[in-house]
Write a structure and sequence with these properties.
Order of helices and strands of chain C: HHHHHHHHH
Structural class of chain C: mainly alpha
Shape of chain C: elongated
Distance between the termini of chain A: 58 Å
Mean pLDDT of chain A: 76
Radius of gyration of chain C: 18 Å
Largest sheet of chain A: none
Low-confidence stretches of chain C: 1-16, 111-122
Oligomer: heterotrimer
Number of helices of chain C: 9
Helix content of chain C: over 70%
Distance between the termini of chain C: 55 Å
Number of domains of chain A: 2
Chain lengths: 196, 284, 189
């Protein structure tokens, strides 16, 4: 059975009727058994819909990640400077090799990519905010480690400006930046995952 | 096939003590938020788990197919400090972790995969693969016949009496490889000293690097190696006869010892690079 | 699996705590860092899969989730960082999944009996609700899911589906009423 109000019950439930209309509907409900029944059943439906929470089957799985991973083309990280030719040649077991190529001098000092700087800044900010969740000796150790990496990077930068074509220094710089980023990521992960 | 042996002991003070039969292919997986995990071996086809939780945890040991999963749950879902003493079959593979836990394994002949956020890890033994990681805390591996991968972000690494490929890295602490017999080896640190002693095989590849720490290589004579040297502010020194070639700038050159067989890389930005002969009586 | 990739435990965190981490990882992933993307997957995968399950049903939830993440990978440079990553991802997920829903409707005959649909599904929390949602006529399921399970407003839904707000309200009511009939088993109009 249908009446003028039965199609507006949802709006009423969602609080979308104007106050005047809502009052009229409530007066109607007092007289209409069918609409009262419908309203009650709609409430049950809403409760049931709202009760659907995350199931165990919703959880991420390693298998699913591998499937996704297989479908995304991933270049190597763009700020990693490739290892010098000498390093890759040295990886071959060349017994008794006499002449080996040294790596050709690199042309320019690679600029620090903006995305790297941003990620670094974000991670540092998060670490600052969450330092209080860590034990004091852990914080001290973190800061000491970060200081060590930073002074290493500063040294590399000075060396690079004095000798821009030095491939060892260029390579070290890339590795140090990478190490700094990895270090911050892990520190943040530990800080955030600490259960108080 | 799921065979679940659920043994819960809600009484806080009494230790949990159970022994479970396992098959040869069963792997042990212990996940602890805090406390200690101490693993010993025996010759039975069974695992004995003794656990002492500090609070009202339920310790669960569930045998699910090929994995024996051991963990504790507190009623409120928070963490508890649990001390585990576990005795396993000699060849059982071990996966141990995960947060603020000290882990000790005595004399295993299985593979070991151990991860902690902070805590001390000591592994004696290990076959096949030993993979150990910590964010904060020292790592010691002794007597492994395995591919060893050890990584501590802020912790010292000590690997002794190893046969197998080795990859050992620390950010801020020393890395010491003593009596390591390997054909594929990498040891690196940023602020720590890197020490390696062991044979240099002529078909081997060895990479020893630090940024500000010195790098020491000791090997039984005669040493046959081609060593790529790189340093900016440091210095290379060796009392053993060698020839220097391919010098492209101060600090970057190749040092050749003997017939130049093993391929070695030694790098330190500001530290010293030292190559010495290892004599039998000489300690590290 | 490199354990430190998941140094963050896989269980989902309260959104506020991970917002900063998401931003950093989204930027890294946009630059090609797959490990960063994996962390985002572990943090947000459950919410995406629940949405996929609600819109497409449990049988298609996994495929739908994978589609969403693959699309997200390619669209990462469009994430500005002015909203939370979870919100951005959710909007993207809704778009991808609605398109999937459309596509699967074109390929499924309307005569597919309810029992067959039910047999294809895997065990879920509320099987009757699942069957009822699957039985809803086209256009109603998504409005019910988005409004009553994902808390979208009619304004947002109308823009997403390209319909008017009053149409959105009407579909919502018709969807709820249909569910009411299916779940109570009675004859209602």
């Amino acid at each position: 059975m249908n009446d003028a109000w039965s199609d507006r019950l949802s709006e009423y439930l969602d609080g979308e009727l104007a106050p005047v209309e809502a009052q009229e509907l409530e007066r109607h409900l007092q007289e209409c058994e069918v609409c009262r029944q419908s309203l009650a059943e709609l409430r049950l439906v809403l409760t049931r819909l709202a009760s659907d929470s995350h199931l165990p089957a919703d959880q991420p799985t390693e298998r699913e990640w591998q499937a996704i991973r297989g479908m995304i083309p991933s270049p190597r990280r763009r700020w990693m400077i490739p290892l010098g030719l000498a390093a890759s040649l040295a990886g071959l077991a060349i017994a008794g090799a006499l002449l080996r190529q040294r790596v050709p001098d690199r042309a320019a000092i690679p600029a620090v990519p903006a995305v790297y700087v941003q990620a670094m800044g974000d991670l540092e900010a998060i670490l600052r905010e969450n330092k209080g969740r860590l034990r004091p000796e852990t914080v001290k150790a973190l800061e000491a480690s970060l200081t060590a990496i930073d002074s290493a990077i500063a040294q590399a930068e000075r060396a690079l400006s004095a000798d821009p074509a030095n491939d060892y220094v260029t390579r070290s710089m890339g590795q140090l930046r990478d190490a700094r980023l990895t270090f911050l990521r892990r520190a943040v992960a530990v800080a955030i995952s600490k259960e108080l | 096939m799921l065979t679940a042996l659920l043994l819960a002991l809600p009484i806080p003070q009494a230790p949990f003590d159970t022994t479970i039969s396992v098959r040869p292919e069963t792997r042990l997986e212990v996940t602890a938020s805090a406390g200690t995990i101490d693993v010993k071996v025996w010759d039975r086809d069974a695992v004995r788990i003794v656990a002492r939780p500090q609070r009202r945890s339920q310790v669960r040991a569930v045998l699910d197919g090929a994995v024996l999963d051991v963990r504790a749950r507190t009623p409120t879902g928070g963490i508890d400090v649990v001390d585990y003493e576990i005795t396993v079959p000699r060849k059982m593979n071990l996966t141990l972790g995960r947060h603020d836990v000290d882990i000790t394994v005595h004399g295993t002949e299985g593979s070991v995969d151990a991860i902690v956020t902070s805590g001390k890890i000591v592994i004696e033994g290990g076959r096949g693969a030993v993979s150990v990681r910590s964010f904060q805390g020292p790592i010691t591996v002794r007597g492994a016949r395995a591919t060893v991968k050890a990584e501590s972000t802020m912790g010292q690494l000590t690997l002794t009496d190893i046969v197998g490929d080795v990859d050992a890295t620390s950010n801020s602490h020393h890395v010491t490889l003593q009596n390591v017999d390997s054909r594929n080896l990498r040891a690196s640190s940023i602020a720590g000293v890197v020490r390696f002693s062991g044979p240099l095989h002529e078909d081997g590849r060895y990479t020893l690097t630090s940024h500000s720490g010195s790098v020491f290589l000791k090997s039984p004579p005669p040493i046959n190696a081609t060593i790529d040297i790189a340093t900016v502010g440091g210095a290379f020194s060796s009392a053993l006869p060698h020839t220097v070639t391919h010098r492209t700038r101060t600090g970057i050159f190749v040092a050749r010892f003997g017939n130049g067989g093993a391929q070695v890389t030694m790098e330190s930005f500001t530290g010293g690079l030292v190559v010495e002969a290892l004599t039998p009586q000489q300690p590290m | 699996m490199n354990a430190y990739v998941c140094a963050i435990p896989p269980a989902p965190f309260p959104g506020a705590m991970t917002a900063g981490l998401d931003l950093a990882d989204a930027r890294l992933a946009a630059a090609g860092d797959a490990e960063a993307f994996e962390r985002l997957y572990w943090r947000h995968g459950a919410r995406v899969k629940a949405l996929a399950r609600r819109l497409l049903g449990p049988a298609e939830a996994e495929d739908g989730t994978q589609e969403v993440f693959v699309r997200a990978w390619h669209r990462l440079d469009q994430f500005r960082g002015d909203a939370a990553f979870g919100t951005w991802l959710h909007r993207l997920a809704v778009n991808v999944l609605l398109r999937e829903l459309e596509r699967s409707r074109r390929h499924t005959s309307d005569d597919t009996p309810l029992e067959t649909l039910a047999a294809e599904t895997q065990p879920v929390g509320d099987p009757d609700l699942e069957r009822a949602l699957a039985a809803l006529p086209a256009g109603l399921r998504e409005v019910v899911v988005l409004h009553d399970m994902e808390s979208y407003t009619h304004d947002e839904i109308s823009r997403l589906l390209g319909i008017g707000q009053s149409a959105s309200k009407m579909r919502l009511h018709r969807g709820r009423s249909a569910l009411r009939s299916l779940l109570t088993g009675g004859e209602r109009r």
